[in-house]
Amino acid sequence: MIGPVLGIESSCDETGVAVYEPGRGLLAHALYSQIKLHAEYGGVVPELASRDHVRKLLPLLHQTLGDAGLKVSDLSAVAYTAGPGLIGALLVGASVARSLAWALEVPAIGIHHMEGHLLAPLLEEPAPGTEPLVPPFVALLVSGGHSLLVGVDRIGSYTILGDTLDDAAGEAFDKTAKLLGLPYPGGPALAKLAETGDPKAFHFSRPMTDRPGLDMSFSGLKTQVLLAWRDCDKANSTRASIARGFEEAIVETLAVKCRRALAATGYQRLVVSGGVGANQRLRAQLAAAGQREGFQTYFPRLAFCTDNGAMIALAGSIRLAAGQHTGPEIRVQPRWDLQSLPEVA
Ligand code: KG4
Ligand code: ZN
């Protein structure tokens, strides 16, 4: 049995640090979000992101170990996000993690960021009446950079069933929010505005649901919103209704694709994770569909839908327990195919 595993996440604009111990669970986690830093630019500025990870990572590490009541020498391994993501940002986490592991003479392991998202529901106790999450299952991974439907036969054995042909779901939320004059990051702001909108006022298309297949496309929706916004009275209530129409279109499209993926694989469990997995309408719609149609749904808590160190510490501990670790070099992969990962025996 391995002891406490440190997890470090720095692939984009959140610095996340956590300690997870198999058998004991999550011992502590801390997160620093750079949202304010990037807000005035309307999106993540890679160079600023790297510099801020450099500034924040060691203080967060200190805080997390303190919260867990551990000394650095208590760590039995170090896991870090090795990709995909922004290369400079990834290098900050990888350099700190690899050097720390080297100094402590413990193993280090580079984790695929999307595998972190995919396994994040395992950080939670199963909801009452729900079986524990075990493969096989389908995972919908929807974030700012990805919209993937993944078939999970076993941990580490992943098949991409569907992908976006253009914008990721979170990117579509962010760009549409910007069009409507909402602050960055747009997803949560748009979802909040949509709460007061009239669901019947605007109907946008459900892209690629009228033909077979599991791929997705969200960039056309943005254009539909642009036209609706251009031609409307610009009242706040109209803006809310456009936001509502857009959110309903994305949520329904994702729900259709999830149900298709479950039907195609014959699996009966669905994981929903990644930043857009924090969307309440998406969670409610999929949970209701699951109850109606007999599949079980698994969501991480809201804080672990978006980027965090806990999912990296967890994924690291699973791979380390299977005897896997990374060599002494500091290597990151800004692009990295999830399907190329080794299976966890
Ligand atoms: O997983 P994540 O933190 O970072 C990436 O790996 O990309 O996801 C961030 C994305 C952003 O596009 C953000 O707007 C979106 O997730 N997001 C949401 C919500 N919360 C975050 N989108 C819709 N509804 C939300 N409640
Ligand atoms: Zn992410």
Structure description:
The chain is 41% helix and 18% strand. It has helices at residues 35-39, 46-68, 87-104, 113-119, 169-179, 186-194, 219-230, 236-265, 280-293, 310-321, and strands at residues 5-9, 14-21, 25-33, 77-83, 108-112, 137-142, 147-154, 157-163, 269-273, 296-298. It is of the alpha/beta class. It folds into 2 domains: 5-119 and 304-340, Nucleotidyltransferase, domain 5; 135-299, 2-Layer Sandwich (Nucleotidyltransferase, domain 5), CATH 3.30.420. The longest helix is centred in the C-terminal third of the chain and has 30 residues, at 236-265. The chain has a 5-stranded mixed sheet with strand order 3-2-1-4-5, sandwiched between helices. The model has no long low-confidence stretch (mean pLDDT 97). It is built from 10 helices and 10 strands. α2 (46-68) packs parallel to α3 (87-104) and α5 (169-179) packs parallel to α7. The structure holds 5'-O-[(R)-(carboxyoxy)(hydroxy)phosphoryl]adenosine (KG4) and zinc ion.
